[in-house]
Specification:
- With about 240 residues, this protein is of the alpha/beta class.
- The chain contains 8 helices and 5 strands.
- It has a 5-stranded parallel sheet, sandwiched between helices.
- Helix 5 links the parallel strand 4 and strand 5.
- Helix 1 packs across helix 6, helix 6 packs across helix 7 and helix 7 crosses helix 8.
- The N and C termini lie far apart (about 45 Å).
Length: about 240
């Protein structure tokens, strides 16, 4: 099967889930360079895959797919455009600026073509319930519609789109990943891509919440960073609830 993977929590957990729970013995991982604000997520995807190769019982092929030339066509918002990364939770209306136009459709279309080429029948990606409010291409309706379209497009060598986390929150994904032994210390979530996580963008706040509600420190942060992350999370949550 084919897995679309960034260097973040969700797709890293999905890699472990596919191998440890679904018992796939061969995984073809695709990570995309699409001209995003930073490539730290690509570097961390490499680290996660290398760890998986050393610690999981599966054959893992990892390709970095350079489609950075598409940037000029989809540069918009805070991730591929010039707008600032907003502070706040995903449920805030302002977070729509972090949408990359049609990103998952582009990734999935390429992954499906690759799956046909290598004679694989499934393409997985880590869309989940917590992304529903802001990201249309992470919704169950999108997955269902695209799966139908992909079937029609590949009818002679049919490929299915799978999103096994679609009804799970980030908190639930982290709970699963902790059980599976996912090396979260190797993952990267922050939208800003600086030397260390900013702790206040939407994906940092969501990450803090996920570990906090699981009763564990984010292993990617130092003790001081974790303390600061909780303080920022609680302050912004109070401000949002006023």
């Amino acid at each position: 099967m084919v897995l679309i993977m960034s260097g973040g929590i969700d797709s890293s957990t999905l890699l472990w889930y596919l191998i440890e729970e679904l018992r796939y013995e061969e995984v073809h991982v695709l990570t995309f360079n699409y001209g995003q604000r930073h490539v730290k997520e690509i570097d961390h995807a490499k680290l996660v895959v290398e760890y998986a190769r050393e610690n999981l019982d599966a054959e893992i092929e990892h390709k970095i797919v350079d489609i950075s030339s598409v940037h000029e066509l989809i540069s918009k918002g805070a991730i591929t455009g010039d707008e600032d990364v907003p502070i706040g939770f995903y449920t805030d209306e302002i977070q729509k600026v972090t949408i990359v136009p049609n990103r998952n459709m582009i990734f999935l279309a390429i992954a499906v073509g690759y799956a046909v080429k290598i004679n694989k029948r499934k393409v997985f990606y880590a869309a989940h319930k917590s992304d529903y409010a802001i990201y249309p291409d992470c919704r169950k309706e999108f997955v269902k519609a695209l799966d139908t379209a992909v079937y029609l497009a590949t009818i002679f060598e049919p490929v299915e789109i799978e999103a096994p986390f679609i009804d799970m929150t980030k908190v639930e994904i982290v709970k699963l990943g902790l059980k599976l032994g996912v090396p979260y210390e190797l993952t990267w979530s922050c939208y800003r891509g600086e030397d260390r996580p900013c702790l206040k963008c939407s994906t940092c706040l969501e990450r803090t919440e996920a570990f906090l509600l699981n009763g564990i420190k984010d292993p990617a942060l130092s003790k001081e960073e974790w303390k600061r992350a909780i303080e920022i999370y609680e302050r912004i949550k109070r401000e949002c609830c006023k």
